[in-house]
C-alpha cells in the first residue's frame, strides 16, 4: 500500500468559474475546478498544446471588471483536467485572491 504525502503548502478552495488559459500560441476557455495561492486545477474540453516548461497565464473571470491573473506552468494532466503551478501576477492580483479566499471561507463557516 502506498501512502500519498500531501505536498501542498496553501489551502485549496473548490471554485467553479469560467477562466481562460493563455500561452504564446493563443487562449483556451477552461472551467476552474479548484484554486490555491500556488496553483489551480482546471478542466479544458479542447486540445491544449503547452509543454510543462511553457509559461501559461490563467485568467479567472469572476464577474469583475478585471480578471484575477496567475502565471505559472503545467505540472500534470489527466484527461481534460490540467494541474497548474501558478501564482498571482502582482499585489492587486494577490489582494483579489485573498479577498476571494476570505469570502469563500466565511461562506463555508457561516
Summarize the topology.
Layout: E1 13-23, E2 26-36, E3 39-43, E4 55-60, E5 68-78, E6 81-88, H1 91-109
Antiparallel strand pairs: 1-2, 1-4, 2-3, 3-6, 4-5, 5-6
Explain the overall architecture.
The radius of gyration is 14 Å and the shape is globular. The protein has one helix at residues 91-109, and strands spanning 13-23, 26-36, 39-43, 55-60, 68-78, 81-88. The chain is an alpha+beta fold and 110 residues long. Mean pLDDT is 82; it is low at 1-6. It contains 1 helix and 6 strands; from the N terminus they run ββββββα.
Per the principal axes of the C-alpha atoms, what is the gross shape? globular
| Beta-strand content bin | over 45%
Radius of gyration from the alpha-carbon trace, in angstroms? 14 Å
What distance lies between the first and last C-alpha atoms, to the nearest angstrom? 38 Å
> What composes the largest sheet?
6 strands, antiparallel, barrel
What level of helicity do the residues show? 10-25%
In N-to-C order, the SSE pattern is EEEEEEH
Total beta strand runs: 6
With helices defined by DSSP (H or I, 4 residues minimum), what is the helix count? Answer: 1
If you average the pLDDT, what whole number results?
Answer: 82
Give the spatial strand order of the biggest sheet: 1-2-3-6-5-4
- Ranges where pLDDT stays below 50 over 5 or more residues in a row are 1-6
Secondary-structure content class: alpha+beta
